[in-house]
Each structure stands twice: as structure tokens, then as C-alpha cells.
Amino acid sequence: MPPPLLLSVKDALIRFSEKPIFENLSFNIHQGSRIALVGKNGAGKSTLMNIITGRQDLDDGERWEEAGTTIGYLQQDIIPKEGQNVFEYIFSEIKDEEKELHAYKVDIVAEALELDVTAQMTRLSGGQLRRAGLARALVEEPDILLLDEPTNHLDLEAIEWLEGYLNSYRGTLLCVSHDRTFLSNITTQVFWLDRGQLKVSPRGFKHFDEWSTMLLEQEERELKNRKTLVEQEVEWASRGVKARRKRNIRRLEEMREMRDKLKADESAYRRATQKIELKPLKDSDTTSKIVAEFYNTCKSFEEDGKTITILDKFSLRIQRGDRIGILGKNGSGKSTFLKLLIGELQPDQGRIKRRKELEFSYFDQKRSDLDPTDTLKKTLCPGGGDYIDVMGKQRHVCGYLKDFMFDPSRAQDKVSQLSGGQKNRLMLAKILANPKTCLILDEPTNDLDMETLDMLEEIISQYKGTLIVVSHDRDFLDQTVSKILAFEGNGKIESCIGGYSDYLEKKKSSERHPAPEAKPSSNKRDLEKDGSKAADISGSPPSKQANACRKDDKPKKPQKLSYKLERELSQLPDKIAKVEADIADYKEQLSDGDFYARDPAAFHDMTKALAEAESKLERYETRWLELEEMRTP
Fold first, then answer.
1. Which CATH code, of 3.40.50.300, 3.40.50.150, 3.40.1280.10, 3.40.50.970, is assigned to 5-210?
2. Is residue 497 a contact partner of residue 625, using CB atoms and an 8 Å limit?
3. pTM, to two decimals
4. Parallel, antiparallel or unpaired: strands 438-442 and 466-470
């Protein structure tokens, strides 16, 4: 027996202009459903949520709601009221007779979300306002809870707490989020908005890629079959209709309708499967391998009479080509570290050595580089004109905007007219046009749809310069970085080779088998290898070290490498780069469809050489990891 039905929409029509947003929209929401709502920007996700809440009237169709059903909605934008504190805001939608019943939840939720319930709403930052809105939605415990990007501005600890809270939530849940891991962990059903239609999967977001790919492949096959049929009808029509009866004239009209409909459907399919494609970002820097070095760096702040330690005798070497992911709780020092790196702040003690003439491209999560009064065109072409320099080539600004899924007709729109996700896309377009030798991305995934996230992952995975990413998006970190710096508070920074999953595994292993406390050392080289004080991230990383952290249960002590092993380690990155270049060259030549026909023997020899090179690359990478782990705590 299916669970009770809470809300139903049947044959709904929503029209904002001449072209309808939804036509014949139908769906049901049952008690206990846990739904991921996905779709491109502009697909109608917010409109569908407003249909559920009843704020959006239907132009046609029916909306039915079970009597007494309560609906809560965490929206993107929260407008604070003057004189209202956080506690009052959280309780503002709860009936007086129910406030005592819900009071205990406020402390639980506010503590987990690091909210001061006595703080004035008008004095909260944008991130804190989002947390307050989330707290109110959770405390209300409605029958249907709608969440729009609930993980924005949350650190990993808060996100994991929220996952646990929602998984024990007794009501019905519908969530929009760019965080794939989050959606995979909390949902059992998917609503996919695709070209004005709602497609429903009975399984959670974990299976979305597999399911959506299957549907698109099926659609592609159907389009091909229709195309064959239309071609047959066109051939019939080309023989002429003279001397044919009226019924054949009707057949000719039907053929034309079929052809027009096929053309429109093929165009819609191409738009639906379109991906942003840009040339790989190149690193023109061939100078020093050292980007920056921290030596015994200390940094702290005074707040409310207390000393907050950010860095404590911290040592770190960043080399050209490193791909570092930075994570940690809000306030643990991630932004301070970035400001020290680029020279906006100076250390209290120790020193930071940066390579001369080092240039940074900085994606700021506050979007401070965007002027809301500028147009999209002026943002990309501040000096005027219609062309933008994209990695040494002139591109028309409208064409470049289209690369980032903007309608070229919006080139004269103001930045203030863009949504949060669109502003992030514009920032990325500006930075990726000519990225410097060090690319810093501070929370780049907030407000992005999944298609743009896929684009960003693809682009930066091919970036050859030094990459530093601050993010709480676990899947994004796994896909883009090869080393982790985890800011755990009070000056403690843990390092790990690999992505977030590897860091998590290492952390769990350390909790099961804590390592003996290291003895203090005054030697700089020993200090750099002391895991409690420093993170030694030296040497260019191999490309396939996503599973680089050891997963054995016994912790290993760091050791000093012999001169021979140090020399071997220093040579491995160059060897790896050479083999990777050979592999790329072999693959490019083998992709030539005429290669085999021209010279079968050479084709087989190159296939064999490719296999040997891939095997050699695996050996080199394994050895690199072994030597790195020998000297890394």
C-alpha cells in the first residue's frame, strides 16, 4: 500500500509570457518522500516550489492538498527585519501555543549551525542569514519541507550534521542542491525538470546520472528513427503530387508537420545535452618550481578578549602544479591563509617567501570583483569594445558569454539582474579568460547548477598551473584536487595526499589508531615533516593519485630519506610528465581513423607502446606515492 498522498498537481499550465513555463505538469508528493529536484538554471525549479507552497497560481489545471498539511520553505534570499533577533526570527512562523513544544529544538539546531540566538538579524552576514533561515525551517518541522541550496555557507561538519538530521526527519523532503554527495545521501526519489517536462525517478540522486543518461540515449534513438521515417516521406513527396488524390495531399501536409516537429525536437535535444566546451587552461610559467614557502609561520587574532590561533609554527612548500584543496570549519583560518599567501596579510612570526612576479587569479566567494551597476559586456570588456582576449585569442564577447550558457542577448543586462548562480558563472568567465599561473577558487560551487559544475571540473582538471580550492563540496574536491589541507582549529592543520575521501579515510584511521606524540624539533627540515605543525606538499603530483592516502590500519612514522631516495623522488615528477606526454601523443595518433588502413604494423606497434607507457606511468606514480609517504606523517 503506497504512503498517504499529501499533495497532487494535475495538468498544470504556468505561463509567464507568451511561451509557457510548464504545460500538462503533473506530479504527486507522498508522505515520507525524500525528493531531489534537479534541472538547469531557468528550468523552473523555483516555480515548481512555489506551486507546491501555493504561492504560484495555476493558469490551468488542478492543485490538491491534504487538509491540515503544513509546508515550510527555505528560500535563497532572506530579508531581515529591524529589531528582530535570531531567536525571534526562528519562532516567527510558529503558533504561540506550539512555541513551548518547539523551544528545545532551537538550542539544538542553533548550536549545530553555530548561530547566536541573541544576535540581531540585521547584523548577520549573508551566510549567517542562510543559517538562520535553515534553522527556522528545521525547527518548524512542517509536513513538507522545501530546501533551496541548504548547504551554501555551511562547513563540512555542519553539512554532515544536517545530513543526519534530515535522514531522521519524519516529514516529507524536497531539496534543490548543487552538492551531489549531499543529495546522494538524503534522497530516495528524483524530480528532473527537463525542457518543461517533469520526469520522475523512483530511486535517489545516487542513481541520477545512470538514469538520465539512459533516458537521453533512448530519446536519441527515437529521434533517429523519426528522422528515417521523415526522410522516407520527403523522398515520396519529391516525386511530385500531380495526379494524386486529395488524401495524398493531406499526407504531404503531414510530412511537413513531421519534419518541422522533428527539427524542433532535435534542436531541443541538442540544447539539453549541450555542454560548455572551452580549450584547456595552459600554464605559460616555465620558471621556478617553488610558488611559495611558509617557514614557522604564526598568525593569531584577538576576539572578545580571547586569542584565536590560526597558524602555529606552520611550514609549507607549494610547488608549481600542486592542486591543493582546503577545508575546515568556518573561522578556522582558511581565508586568513589565502590572504597570507597573496600578501594581503603579514604573519605575526616566521616568514612567507613568494616567488617574484607571482600572479594570482582569485575567485572571491563574495564576488567583490563584480560591480552590480556594470553590464555583462563591460564586466568582461572593461576597456570597451566587443572583443575579449581569451588565452591570447580575440573572442567576440557574445560568443564567449554563450560558452558559459548566457543568452548573448543579455550582454547589456546589469550584473544586479543576475541570480547568484549566474553571477558565479560570470566571475568564472572573467577569471578563466586569462588565468594567471596560480588559480585560487574560494567556494566556487555555491549557487552553480550541475551543468556548470561539470564544466568547471572539466576546465580546472586540465589546468596546468597551481590550483588552490577552498570548498565544502566533497565530490568537487575529489574530482579536482590531489592534496588536502584540513584546518581543524587552534592552529592545527592536517595534510593528506588525495581528495576529500582519502582525507576522511585517513582521519578515521587516525582516530582508531592515534599516532604517538611527536617530539618537538628546532630543525627546520624536521619541522616541515612534523604533521602536527606543518604540511609538506612538495613535488609535482601525479595525475592519478586520487586514492593516494594509505588505508592500512597501522600508522607509520615519518622517516628521513637517504640522499639516493631523495634524488629518486625529485626526478619522478619529470619522468611522470614525460610519460604522460608520450601517452597523449600515442592516443592522438591512434585516434586517426585512417592510421590502421595506412600501416597496420605501425598501428599495432603503437598500441603496444601505449600499453607499456601506461604501465610505466602506473609504476612511477606508485613509487612517487611510496617515497612521499615514507617522509610524510
1. 3.40.50.300
2. yes
3. 0.67
4. parallel
